[in-house]
Amino acid sequence: MAFEQDGIKQIEVSDLKELINNTTKEPIIIDVREVEEYEEAHIPGIPLIPMHTIPNVMDQLDKEQTYLFVCRSGNRSQNVALYLQNQGFENVQNYFGGMLAWDGEVKSGPEWIVSDVKELKK
């Protein structure tokens, strides 16, 4: 059941599974961990934009779009959501508990490391 923390909507495991199986394009789910963590295990089909690169690509993100961020425990993704919210993004969400709470399918390897934010529009 989704809830709010520090003004950011928190999505839990069951909600995330529903969103992944949903065919709509919202929200765009983004993993913000480091490349090594992502390659070790990630949710299939979820792109990676490491947290430290978010300020560099922020201008390419659509402020009208909804984004849901994922990390290892939910802390870095919460910080990314708060940062973007402070930059004028109103539709940002956090996956509460992160990959530590994920009990669904995982994939390893460099499946979708984003080099150009336009790739997210696929």
From TrEMBL:
PROSITE patterns: RHODANESE_3. SUPFAM superfamilies: Rhodanese/Cell cycle control phosphatase. InterPro entries: GlpE_sulfurtransferase (IPR050229), Rhodanese-like_dom (IPR001763), Rhodanese-like_dom_sf (IPR036873). Pfam families: Rhodanese. Residues 23-108 form the Rhodanese domain. SMART domains: RHOD. This is Rhodanese-like domain-containing protein. It comes from Halalkalibacter kiskunsagensis. The lineage of its organism: Bacteria, Bacillati, Bacillota, Bacilli, Bacillales.
